[in-house]
Amino acid sequence: MKRNRMILWAVLAAAVAALVWCLWPKSGGNPEYDEAELRALRESLKPKVNMPDADVRAGAPERGPEPPEAEPEPAKPEPEPEPPRPAVAPGKIALPNGRQIRFRLPPEGEVRTLHSGGKLYEIDSEGNVVDISPVPLFREPIENHLLNVVEGKTVFPFVLENLKEEDILHVCSAPTYQEEGDDEETIARREFVAGAKQYVLEKVASGMTAKEAIREITAFDDERRKLVGECRADLFALVRDGDIEGARQYRAAIEAWMREKGYGELEIPARYRKSLEGGE
Predict the structure, then answer these.
(1) Pair (185, 209) in one structural domain
(2) In this structure, is residue 224 part of a structural domain?
(3) 42 within a domain of the structure (yes/no)
(4) In the chain, how many H helices and how many E strands?
(5) Which of 1, 128, 161, 213 could staple 200 via S-S, CB 3.0–4.6 A?
């Protein structure tokens, strides 16, 4: 009887041990998961990271041909040096515009002036040329042209010929303004031009073209210079002959006539002026 009870307990113990062995996880740890479930749980908890580039992963496919490298930009060419100016021919000078003209140089230490192409130059004894052209009083070429005409200076026909009729009328119809800093002499010069512009408009109203009117002013000025030149010659002859009193009377008559005609003032060189004014 006792022996049968021992066999029964042994069988029960073996059954319990087998049951415990089946239920207990083989890897230990949390008994709620088996090994496969735990592995899946661990995989799900791994941090998500970006994969490296394909060319560093095992078994990466071969790259295609590398694109050609961009060619470097060509270096900018160095500016070409200015070609040397041609040598100045003997007896000539070279103006800033490159033109060479025949010119007699002044003695050493002196200078001479030259009008050329609407410019005024000063030339020394070594042939050095300096542009000393005055700054134009007006912005419009036709106004400076008219100023040269009424002041008896050299005028260049191409200035007038290169202007259109409507442009001349536009300038002549516009007011002539004084500018800040104008002195009395400058204001008077502007008034001369304003009068010339008004003359052009009156002649156009009577049937002339603007260019014809300006040519008429130029012809009038040429006549003025001719008459004044003849009077000056007579006056200087009286001074050279020693008739100082007669020269003074003739000068007074000439200047009164010039004022009446609007011819401006009589220009007298210093040596003659000294003789005329020496006894005053």
Answers:
(1) yes
(2) yes
(3) no
(4) 9, 5
(5) 213
Residue 46 identity = K
Per-chain mean pLDDT for the chain: 75
Residue 212 lies in a domain: yes
Burial class (CB in 10 A: 0-12, 13-18, 19+), 145: buried
Q: Measured between alpha carbons, how far is 89 from 193 in angstroms, rounded to an integer? A: 42
| Buried/exposed code over 124-134 (b: 16+ C-beta within 10 A; e: otherwise) | eeeeebeeeee
Asked whether residue 115 is assigned to any structural domain, the reply reads: yes
Q: How many CA atoms lie within 13 A of 172 on its CB side?
A: 27
How far apart, in whole angstroms, are the C-alpha atoms of residue 167 and residue 107? 46
Cα angle 217, 223, 226 (rounded to 5 degrees) comes to: 140
Q: Kindly state whether residues 149 and 252 are assigned to the same domain.
A: yes
Per-residue pLDDT at 153: 72
Q: Which residue has the tokens 């001719």?
A: 226
Question: Is the domain of 120 the same as that of 161?
Answer: no
H/E stretch holding 154: none
C-alpha span between 224 and 152 (Å, rounded): 8
Q: Is residue 12 predicted with pLDDT exceeding 50?
A: no
Between 1 and 181, name the one with better pLDDT: 181
Task: Choose between 23 and 200: higher pLDDT.
Answer: 200
> What pLDDT is recorded for position 280?
46
Look at the block and give the residue holding tokens 């000068």. 251
**Nearest-angstrom CA–CA distance, 236 and 251:** 10
Do 19 and 100 belong to one domain? Answer: no
Residue given tokens 């130029």 in the structure block: 218
Closest CA to 179 of 120, 124, 136: 136
Which two structure tokens, joined as six digits, stand for 235?
């006056």
- Read off the amino acid at residue 136: P
Per-residue model confidence (pLDDT) at position 49: 37
pLDDT for the residue numbered 224 = 77
